């Protein structure tokens, strides 16, 4: 590192607040600070503006019907169609503009570009095909697909004919597919022969077929996309299985009138990843969800029709639903879709794509950012990233060091970073800065979006003092909220409302949504999400958030990533176990161990001192990149390990186990 660079790093390390650049502010979609007050005063009327981003066949009566909490209804009796809003209405002005820019993993393969007109055509043809296969309005169509363009086509085709979709992440097991098809009584499946991952042509259809064998009712039809061509695994299609391309060709030129859906009709089901137990069928509806996805895309991601926008999540997660497909396409922008991993063929693949397509906004996850940081800045430095205007992150808390690295090495200190807190259940972003208005504080997501009543409370529901850890609650409904858990209203109330609501009351004021995350708030109203409520360690009666300890560890030079869990301890109740990944070029020796322990003592106090520091090349992660703390806890306690099938890297578990045994 040169002296100049060293000074820059040192300055950034100290700096706790960052202002958006004037250049960004001067072009931002939302720049009037008054929006917060305005929305508060005109609530729930403030959401009319979000509804105005959509085209309606029939206008709605009421913005909000809160007569039966927590079963809220938004934009009552309005009629609209999501596929019309994402496609048809753009045709006249933007038909030739690119809607989806698809990049496959193999570098020698041509990318596939769909203009709005081309996407519209294929969605119509596939919608007609689905109808011919017997799909009727309100039938749930399951999609078990990797990142191929036929996935958004299928989603929009379903939306067109009013058939809700349920997308199951392609990395999930056959069993996960069967469970979800059974839970939703889904009789239709759209899947794929395979896809490329780090150069290998993976067989996906075998898994899909195995899943189908576990479905406990008749499956009427399965559609199979041929992604791999000659690299395919030679499966013959079974009875009732159809080739996607043939179906589309058979319906060439077909036009399907978009069904007029009621505002509250179901758009899709999404089973949450299940990092914490049995999957929940989160139900999202048509108008509220789309308005929320579109409004937040515009206000937070600053999307404009002429942008090339890229969210590197997988469409198998809610992030991909709201911020690859629905939000961006509702706004008529260009949405980039990438099939592969960031390190294939080299660790600069993302930066190569940003450069080639002149990406304006990049929305990714802290786990990816920490990997970039570990790999080193030389990879982004090889590329011209000057097209970038805004950066975003989602999925888990981001530690200040990773935030600053992203800000400096990807954004060149010119792009605001939006750290967006939200969940599958919220439909879209909830807590984050508005990039054209608010200063940023690394490590803190920011204030709640305008019109949202988010509070940090104690176990009794009383607001806690700034700086104190508490529980995050949402005290007023919002348009993008889940409406229920599919066919299970009771679990919906119990999971999300019972904790802080008077469940006998009809007064919406008595109903409080509890997302099960811990958080703290500062004097400016900025919220730092500390992670799931169950991620708390109780050391000698002190409740310590794992996130705070992890932050302290990741603040130590040379540490790339850390996960902290509680291990049983005779004296203390629980003791802090830290699993640590080092940056390339650092050794996991005693000196490093001491610096880590010292770092925790300095920033939190001796009470949080890790009992064990275990160096590992990887952490067990779910396919969505979330650390499986439950497993690390079981390892620390030498317990039998639970299900590891949803892990991206199951092989690492044994490796860590051996290391922990050696520590003991
Ligand atoms: P499951 O609910 O099935 O266990 P999940 O919670 O991992 O799965 P998601 O809905 O994708 O499924 O994740 C939402 C959670 O991710 C939030 O509740 C929060 O814990 C975490 N999260 C998301 N974004 C942020 C963020 N910007 N900062 C901190 N935490 C975040
Ligand atoms: Mg969750």
UniProtKB/TrEMBL annotation:
Signal peptide: none annotated. Its EC number is 6.2.1.1. Residues 548-626 form the AMP-binding enzyme C-terminal domain. Pfam families: ACAS_N, AMP-binding, AMP-binding_C. Keywords: ATP-binding, Ligase, Nucleotide-binding. GO terms for biological process: acetyl-CoA biosynthetic process from acetate; carbon fixation by 3-hydroxypropionate cycle. This is Acetate--CoA ligase.
């Amino acid at each position: 590192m040169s002296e100049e660079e060293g000074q820059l790093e040192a300055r950034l390390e100290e700096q706790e607040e960052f202002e958006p650049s004037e250049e960004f502010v001067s072009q931002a979609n939302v720049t009037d600070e008054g929006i917060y007050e305005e929305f508060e005063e005109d609530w729930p009327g403030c959401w009319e503006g979000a509804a105005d981003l959509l085209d309606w066949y029939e206008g709605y009566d009421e913005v909000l019907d809160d007569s039966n909490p927590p079963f809220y209804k938004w934009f009552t009796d309005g009629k609209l169609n999501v596929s019309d809003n994402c496609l048809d209405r753009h045709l006249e002005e933007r038909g030739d503009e690119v809607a989806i820019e698809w990049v496959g993993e193999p570098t020698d393969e041509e990318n596939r570009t769909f203009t709005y007109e081309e996407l519209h055509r294929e969605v119509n043809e596939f919608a007609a095909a689905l109808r011919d296969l017997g799909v009727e309005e309100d039938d749930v169509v399951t999609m078990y697909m990797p990142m191929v363009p036929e996935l958004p086509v299928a989603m929009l085709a379903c939306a067109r004919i009013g058939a809700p979709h349920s997308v199951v992440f392609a990395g999930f097991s056959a069993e996960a597919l069967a469970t979800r098809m059974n839970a939703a009584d889904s009789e239709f499946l759209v899947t794929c022969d395979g896809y490329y991952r780090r150069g290998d042509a993976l067989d996906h259809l075998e898994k899909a077929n195995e899943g189908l064998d576990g479905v406990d009712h008749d499956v009427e039809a399965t559609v199979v996309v041929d992604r791999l061509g000659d690299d395919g695994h030679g499966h013959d299609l079974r009875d009732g299985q159809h080739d996607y391309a043939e179906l589309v060709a058979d319906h060439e030129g077909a036009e399907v009138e978009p069904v007029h859906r009621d505002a509250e009709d179901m758009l899709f089901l999404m089973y949450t990843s299940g990092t914490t137990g049995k999957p929940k069928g989160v139900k999202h509806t048509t108008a509220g969800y789309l308005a929320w996805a579109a409004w937040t895309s515009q206000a937070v991601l600053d999307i404009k029709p002429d942008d090339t926008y890229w969210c590197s999540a997988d469409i198998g997660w809610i992030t991909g639903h709201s911020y690859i497909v629905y939000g961006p396409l509702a706004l008529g922008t260009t949405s980039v879709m990438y099939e592969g991993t960031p390190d294939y063929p080299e660790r600069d693949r993302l930066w190569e794509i940003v450069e080639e397509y002149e990406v304006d906004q990049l929305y990714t996850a802290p786990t990816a950012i920490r990997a970039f940081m570990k790999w080193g800045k030389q990879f982004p430095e090889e590329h011209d990233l000057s097209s970038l205007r805004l950066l975003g992150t989602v999925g888990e808390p981001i530690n200040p060091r990773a935030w600053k690295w992203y800000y400096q090495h990807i954004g060149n200190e010119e792009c605001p970073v939006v750290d967006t807190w939200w969940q599958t259940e919220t439909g879209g972003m909830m807590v984050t800065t508005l990039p054209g208005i608010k200063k940023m504080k690394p490590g803190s997501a920011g204030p709640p979006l305008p019109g949202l009543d988010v509070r940090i409370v104690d176990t009794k529901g009383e607001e806690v003092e700034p700086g104190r850890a508490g529980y995050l609650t949402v005290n007023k409904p919002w348009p993008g909220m889940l409406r229920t858990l599919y066919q299970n209203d009771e679990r919906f109330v119990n999971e999300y409302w019972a904790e802080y609501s008077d469940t006998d009351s009809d007064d919406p004021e008595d109903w409080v949504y509890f997302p099960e995350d811990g958080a703290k708030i500062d004097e400016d109203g900025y919220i730092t999400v500390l992670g799931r409520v169950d991620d708390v360690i109780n050391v000698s009666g002190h409740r310590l958030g794992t996130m705070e300890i992890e932050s302290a560890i990741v603040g130590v030079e040379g540490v790339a990533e850390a996960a902290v869990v509680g291990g049983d301890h005779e004296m203390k109740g629980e003791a802090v176990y830290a699993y640590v990944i080092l940056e390339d070029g650092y050794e996991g020796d005693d000196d490093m161990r001491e610096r880590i322990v010292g770092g925790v003592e300095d920033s939190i106090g001796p009470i949080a001192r890790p009992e064990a520091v275990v160096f590992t090349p990887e952490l067990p992660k779910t396919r969505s990149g979330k650390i499986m703390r439950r497993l690390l806890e079981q390892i620390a306690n030498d317990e039998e390990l639970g299900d590891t099938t949803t892990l991206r890297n199951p092989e690492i578990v044994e490796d860590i186990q051996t290391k922990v045994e050696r520590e003991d």
